[in-house]
Design a protein that fits this description.
- The two termini are about 30 Å apart.
- By secondary structure, this protein is of the alpha/beta class.
- Helix 2 packs across helix 4, helix 2 packs parallel to helix 9 and helix 7 runs antiparallel to helix 8.
- It has a single domain, classed as Carbamate kinase (3-Layer(aba) Sandwich), CATH 3.40.1160.10.
- The chain has a 9-stranded mixed β-sheet with strand order 4-3-5-2-1-6-10-11-9, with helices on both faces. Strands 7-8 form a two-stranded antiparallel sheet.
- It is globular.
- It has 9 helices and 11 strands.
Length: about 240
């Protein structure tokens, strides 16, 4: 196993599958089984989930008078809903799972405590971090990188529906070429949008490798953890 402790970032959109918004049971089950494969081989897994499948769904019913700060807090609460749902699926496949939240809600989840999260991981439990960083203007990508740094993760894995970073959008440009490796500096220069710039800056400053990979292909999570060359590695270039 190349990466003993990992943080998996899942977007809210990943959880909605083919639905327009909300949750997709087949996707949740698939991701739970992928995580179980890694836990069963001794991997320590923490997870950060986005909330776009729930909050962005409101736009379909005409909610368009919400400002940025209010919208960000609504997005944080959406991640809590997703975290509770995914916890249920993980527990159903036999994985002890704890939720830690950046916004206190004691009846639902533990408050985020770094050392407690690490102890959970060391005991083979999965930890789901929800509510972002508890502050507006920070994305769940940035929250994922910061949490990965705090728990001393070996790698951050961003599961997407594409199999890495391309020179252009592969869904729009058939000539786009996949990049197997790219430095953080080059990602800035190219304006890569797969993660926000703040997340990349934090990753670069703290020498946290980030791998972008296709989470929807069965077995990929275990393969990445094992060190197989899947997806795109974003790394700090030594000067």
């Amino acid at each position: 196993m190349k990466y003993k402790r990992s943080l998996l970032k899942l977007s809210g959109e990943a959880l909605m599958g083919s639905n327009g918004f909300g949750l997709h049971s087949t996707r949740l089950q698939q991701y739970a089984e992928e995580v179980k494969k890694v836990v069963d081989m001794g991997g320590q897994v923490a997870i950060v989930i986005g909330g776009g499948n729930i909050f962005r769904g409101f736009s379909k019913i005409g909610v368009d008078k919400i400002n940025r700060i209010e919208g960000d807090y609504m997005g944080m609460l959406a991640t809590v809903i997703n975290g509770i749902a995914f916890q249920s699926y993980l527990e159903n496949v036999g994985i002890c799972t704890y939720i830690q939240t950046a916004i206190r809600m004691d009846q639902i989840a533990e408050p985020f405590v770094k050392d407690r999260a690490i102890r959970h991981l060391e005991k083979g439990r999965v930890v789901i971090f929800v509510a972002g960083l508890g502050n507006p203007y920070f994305t769940t990508d940035t929250a994922a990188v910061l949490r990965a740094i705090e728990i001393k993760a070996d790698v951050l894995l961003k599961g997407t529906r594409v199999d890495g970073i391309y020179t252009n959008d592969p869904e729009k440009d058939k000539d786009a070429k996949k990049l197997k490796n790219i430095s953080f500096d080059m990602a800035y220069k190219m304006g890569i949008k797969v993660m926000d710039q703040t997340a990349f800056i934090l990753g670069n400053e703290n020498n946290l490798p980030i791998i972008i990979f296709d989470i929807n292909r069965k077995g990929n999570f275990k393969k990445v953890i094992s060190g197989e060359k899947i997806g795109t590695l974003v790394f700090k270039k030594n000067k």
